[in-house]
Design brief:
By secondary structure, the chain is of the alpha+beta class. It folds into 2 domains: about 5-70, Winged helix-like DNA-binding domain superfamily/Winged helix DNA-binding domain (Arc Repressor Mutant, subunit A, Orthogonal Bundle); about 75-230, 3-Layer(aba) Sandwich (Chorismate lyase), CATH 3.40.1410.10. It has helices at about 10-20, 30-40, 45-55, 80-90, 105-115, 145, 160-165, 185-190; strands at about 60, 65-70, 75, 95-105, 120-130, 135-145, 175-180, 200-205, 215-220, 225-230. The strands form 3 sheets. A 6-stranded antiparallel β-sheet has the order 4-5-6-9-8-7. A two-stranded antiparallel sheet has the order 1-2. Strand 1 and strand 2 form a beta hairpin. It starts with 7 loop residues before the first helix and ends in an 8-residue tail after the last strand.
């Protein structure tokens, strides 16, 4: 490719990425002004390159400055819980309870849980943490008639799947869809990020061994802090 046709932002991003490779996690990133002077470009060009590196998870905001970020948390796409996935990667999981209520199922929730619209369901909304950093927002709906006993002693800052298994219910399968979205202002506030930051949105419907619905989950993850990985194998001929 003719170098003169490569976007200037791409060239600057590549140069900054090389600088980051020589820095350690938590080290400060040179300022926009310093980088613009070093590369002989406008500060807006540097600003755009830094925005792309922020989304890529290479850097993060800290106070009024920018520092080198640790690698993204790569979650496996599996029936395992967020807690299990984070621990397997050497990260410390955590949750902050936002909402825990019994509410009437809307048409979409009722259809996923095979209930009549208006039937009461249990709704838990929690901020997901990794090493104390807010990385996701999880909203779970459970059939109340199956899991009302969770009210008796479940700690919502711990794994919900472990609590479900403790009731004698085993997850046997799930359907999951992933798409990219932007966070609503409330969601961005809970995740301590900008509404302009791309998010990964997961919709999951899980069932037990009899095919009966267990949960309907909407999980929103920060695109700069989380990636997903799936293991694939050939289908039988």
């Amino acid at each position: 490719m003719d170098a003169t046709r490569v976007p200037k932002v791409f060239l600057v991003r590549t140069e900054i990425d090389a600088i980051l490779a020589d820095l350690d996690e938590g080290d400060p990133v040179p300022s926009e002004r310093d980088l613009a002077t070093r590369f002989g470009v406008a500060r807006e060009t540097v600003r755009q390159a830094l925005r792309e590196l922020l989304v890529a998870g290479r850097i993060r905001r800290l106070g009024r400055g920018t520092v080198v970020s640790r690698p993204k948390l790569t979650q496996p796409l599996s029936l395992g819980s967020y807690t299990e996935g984070a621990i397997s990667l050497g990260r410390t999981p955590g949750r902050i309870l936002v909402t825990w209520e019994d509410t009437a199922a809307d048409a979409e929730t009722a259809a996923d849980l095979e209930l009549t619209p208006g039937t009461e369901v249990m709704h838990l909304e929690r901020v997901l943490l990794a090493d104390g950093e807010r990385i996701g927002l999880e909203s779970t709906y459970l059939p109340l008639h199956r899991f009302a006993t969770l009210r008796g002693g479940y700690d919502p800052t711990t794994s919900l799947y472990a609590a479900i298994r403790a009731t004698g219910v085993e997850l046997a399968g799930a359907r999951e869809r992933i798409e990219t979205v932007l966070a609503a202002p409330r969601e961005a506030g809970l995740l301590d990020c900008s509404t302009a930051l791309p998010m990964l949105l997961l919709h999951r419907r899980s069932v037990d061994a009899d095919g009966a619905p267990i949960e309907r989950v909407r999980s929103l993850y920060r695109g700069d802090r989380v990636a997903f990985e799936a293991r694939l194998s050939p289908e039988p001929a």
